[in-house]
Amino acid sequence: MQKPRPEQPDERDGTLRFRTIWISDVHLGTVGCQAGPLLDFLRHTESKRLYLVGDIVDGWQLSRRWFWPRAHNDVVQKLLRKARKGTEVVYVLGNHDAFGRHFAPVSFGGIDVRDEDVHVTADGRRLLVTHGDLFDGVVQCARWLAFAGDRAYLAALHLNRWLNAIRARLGFPYWSLSQYLKQRVKNAVSYISDFEVALADAARRRGVDGVVCGHIHKAEIRPIDGVLYCNSGDWVESLTALVEHDDGRLAILSWKEVAQHAERAVADAALADGELVAHPACH
Known about the structure:
The protein has one domain (18-275): Purple Acid Phosphatase, chain A, domain 2. Helix 1 packs parallel to helix 3 (70-84) and helix 6 crosses helix 7 (186-206). The longest helix has 27 residues, at 143-169. It is α/β, with parallel strands linked by helices. The protein is globular. The protein has helices at residues 35-43, 59-64, 70-84, 137-141, 143-169, 177-184, 186-206, 255-278, and strands at residues 16-23, 45-53, 88-92, 106-108, 111-114, 117-120, 126-129, 210-213, 220-224, 227-231, 240-244, 250-254. The strands form two sheets. The protein has a seven-stranded mixed β-sheet.
């Protein structure tokens, strides 16, 4: 996986600036949504264009039980604020927020809502941007199974919180039960592989150079039979985004990398302020 090279911030606040940022699978409205880290990520990154690649709001869970803490509202407000300040925000709908497909394409609060889009990188590559659920046979042909899988995933996340609370007390790092199960179950691994190939095939049929998607919560950048496949990950467990640098380079960027960069910027600023106090004659 290609690692991003941090851009130089224009200010002393640790902000990283990119040409484009893609985030997906936030699942606002669920207990598993990591709204705090996402808000921190949004505060310390800027881009000319920001893609929300589906499942940002989880209509499936909200239709069962209303859950909307302040942190989730703060994320929405931050996205609207970015749009007001000049960031081009494009919301590509997914299966959990498919209720918006009845109205798309539409614009609200400066955010363009679409079923899909084609993004052109700085180096001229054309990328199909789609959530990916329309190429998922389970979602399209066995919706009941998709709902059952969603409930099983939420149960795994609930159990995972308890396990990691115990691991934290024992001094062990975070461990993902759901990711472990996906990697160990042969059918799940086959499903992910089939999904990635299906997306690459769709991009090839559209005559574009690559595809950017979400849906399976697995961040990835890799070529598949001559087509660039990119998945931005999720904000439930992996806490990752896909970013494009000013020269067109693509990379996976994690919340931890952004947080660490911001911490270093604060430390450097404090050190610089200390030096100026110690040498008041310096200009």
